[in-house]
Amino acid sequence: QVQLQESGPGLVKPSETLSLTCTVSGGSISSSYWSWIRQPPGKGLEWIGYIYYSGSAKYNPSLKSRLTISVDTSKNQFSLKLTSVTAADTAVYYCARLPLFNTFDPWGQGTLVTVSS
Amino acid sequence: EIVLTQSPGTLSLSPGERATLSCRASQSVGSNYLAWFQQRPGQAPRLLIYGASSRATGIPDRFSASGSGTDFTLTINRLEPEDFAVYYCQQYGSSPYTFGQGTKLEIK
Questions:
Q1: pLDDT digits (tens, 9 = 90+) for B6-22
Q2: Taking 90 as the threshold, does the pLDDT of residue B62 lie above it?
Q3: Contact criterion met (CB < 8 Å) for A47 and B45
Q4: Residue B1 has pLDDT above 90, yes or no
Q5: Residues facing residue A112 across a β-bridge
Q6: CA-based nearest distance B17→chain A, Å
Q7: Cβ neighbours of residue B25 closer than 8 Å, sequence gap 6 or more
Q8: CB-CB: which of A47, A105, A110 is closest to B56?
Q9: What are phi and psi of A111, to 5 degrees?
């Protein structure tokens, strides 16, 4: 079955760029859409955006100006870059599969990214 | 953007009882693309229900859901100790996809 694993720095300085990668195993990244979701500590969930293996992406308007999601089919990975981060971007970042006409399933275990100097 | 409002914020029940959780949307959810997730402490959310009423793979039939348009309900019969967690509704009928603020189901 499909499994996802997030990776990237756990600490990012304010105004810098947050970069994360999600590695997909147990299935081809060409089989679905793929998404990022985040959760600030002790708070609710926020959809960040999704990408198709072709590179077509859709972003949450609240983050669109700072966000880039990309895909590397040769590595079965997709990535997130969020620029000009502030403390408000501190969260657990999850990647998830987004099947067509369906919703996030399964999820990665999540990775905590803290924005602090 | 569709705003999802969950109630109650916290629900205190005992094992064996029935839990009823509500999710109300600020506008109709397209194609009833409404999902429910369970999140236990320190874990990623897990999909329980999709399409407003269909159980995801491996979800026990103690979990059921209903609703359409703007009003949706998740029911958990015969609560087990592992069911005490936070539950989120989420709509994927229109972008941006949005989540409710969550209902915490706690042991009474």
A1: 999 999 999 999 999 99
A2: yes
A3: no
A4: yes
A5: A92
A6: 26
A7: B2, B3, B4, B5, B34, B69, B70, B71, B72, B91
A8: A105
A9: -135, 130
